[in-house]
Amino acid sequence: MFIYFRDMSMWDGGIPVDNPTRPYNTFGVDAEYIIFKLKQLLTPNFSWIFLIFITGLLLYLFYRKVRKRYITEISTEITEVITGIYFSFAAYIVLSLFYITWTNYRYVIPYIFFVIFTIVLLIYLLDIQNKLIVMIQVGILGITFASNFFTLDTVFKPSQYSYDMGDIDVLNNMLFYSTREGNMKTDEKAELYGTTTYVYNRQYIHMGEAIENVVDRLELDKNTGIILPKRLDHINTCMAYFARRNVDNLYYNIDEKKLTVNSLFNDYSGDENYEKVHFIVSDFTGDQIERFEDYSSIYVMEFPFMEEYNQKYHFPRQDKEVIDHKGYTINMYKIK
């Protein structure tokens, strides 16, 4: 079900090509979008535990009111401030559910503030000094802190699409994604899409580190080419691996072993400590080697989520090396 209200595009508002009656970057009532956003609000990184905790505290508060037990009193001025905060919370929920836009996880961050504020407020009102409550708080703090670095939540994982990266899966929290032809709805077979779609904790940074490890292993010179197998199109391929729309200006810092972007303000083209990296977006197969005759060396990268992963290529040569880094696995073939 979808009811369109008004176009209020902030970026490049458009209409998904798989259903031209469902625009985005606009207000509307879309049942599928609302369900997706509710999952995004309630499930990531143990958010559901916060809700269980809040529900328990609210029931206890209700019990105390019914029994006319002690509840901490707050002044009228503070009550007005709290009321204003919850009006803001209500506005945020309405915006989250009915303003149809990209479903990046960073848009959920304000919700976490309201949840934590509610827990603190309820504990203050109830004047709880129970050791069990303190232990529960410490436990919640511990698992949520760990979730900044590892995807541990077994409720969160099944609610998202995932991509096999080796020892870990990267979760995709996008309902639709952009291509040159328009905006496509994400499904189980969707290609990996980059930018902030899989930034729900710090695990995503290890993908970039794994690629840097690949570059570090190469016999890198100005005539070395690294083929990135195409995902959807050129832009989506660059986004998937580097969260950039192109890879024409990437340089490798030989001393720090880091990839960096060459720009007007940071020009590395004449610096001997930097080597330009030639990443090539291509739907490459082994019988197309002549397309890259200008390069003295050619490498091909593979990730486990690719259909062709570990399949037999018909390369002229297949010097293969496997790079593992903090859960990410990359097959690297030197084919020339």
Description:
With 336 residues, the protein is of the alpha+beta class. The protein has two domains: 2-146, no CATH class; 202-334, no CATH class. Helices cover 33% and strands 21% of the residues. The strands form five sheets. It has a five-stranded mixed β-sheet. A three-stranded antiparallel β-sheet has the order 1-2-3. A hairpin with a 2-residue loop joins strand 6 (176-179) and strand 7. The model is unreliable at 4-18 (pLDDT under 50).
Count of individual domains: 2
What portion of the residues fall into strands of 2 or more residues?
Answer: 15-25%
Task: Name the poorly predicted regions.
Answer: 4-18
In N-to-C order, the SSE pattern is EEHHHEHHEEEEHEHEEEEEEE
Distance between the termini: 53 Å
**Mean of pLDDT:** 79
Label the structural class.
alpha+beta
Total DSSP E strands: 15
> How helical, in percent, are the residues?
25-40%
Major β-sheet profile = 5 strands, mixed
Over all CA atoms, what is the radius of gyration?
A: 25 Å
Total DSSP helices: 7
The neighbouring-strand order within the major sheet is 12-8-13-15-14
Taken from the alpha-carbon principal axes, the silhouette is elongated
